[in-house]
Write a structure and sequence with these properties.
Nuclear Transport Factor 2, Chain: A
């Protein structure tokens, strides 16, 4: 009987706490500049390179600066973009419009993590709820870059074939 009472108590408690099982929304960082720091100067430089690549090439469309950021033999693991700096420029010139380079990344940036020669950017991503098209939810998108000799030489993300 005690077990039944305990079970019913827990069940009733859960009925009054509907958000107990709700997702905690992903939040962007308040201070992007703070994300660029590192006690290791090489890791800080790698973070800054990737940060500037994102702002310059992907958001502002200044693809004429690709050689500043990308190695000529840049390896692409995104299944929708071919490998090589020239292929990157060709792919992104089709849909990235040239604009002023902003001082901060405009996408909702969550974090920048660097370890060894890798830099990972994570972003808030809002998606439609597959169970209710009137609702959305947040998740996280990741891009990872490998840096060598001051250039990005490789990239991974969570993209799927379209």
């Amino acid at each position: 009987m005690k077990s039944l009472v305990l079970f019913l108590t827990v069940l009733l408690s859960l009925a009054f706490v509907p958000n107990l099982f709700a997702q905690v929304p992903v939040q962007a960082a308040d201070d992007q500049a703070a994300l660029l720091g590192s006690p290791d100067p090489q890791l800080a430089a790698n973070k800054k390179l990737v940060y500037d690549l994102w702002r310059t090439l992907l958001e502002a469309g200044h693809l004429e600066q690709a050689d500043r950021f990308l190695d000529v033999n840049y390896v692409q693991h995104n299944p929708t973009v071919a490998t090589g700096r020239a292929a990157f420029v060709k792919a992104f010139s089709a849909f990235v419009k040239k604009a002023d380079i902003q001082p901060k990344i405009q996408a909702p940036l969550v974090s920048i993590v660097a370890e060894g020669d890798l830099v990972v950017l994570s972003f808030v991503r809002t998606e439609k709820d597959p169970k209710d098209a009137a609702k959305t939810y947040t998740t996280t998108w990741f891009d990872m870059f490998r840096v060598k000799n001051g250039k990005v030489v490789e990239h991974w993300d969570t993209a799927l074939k379209e």
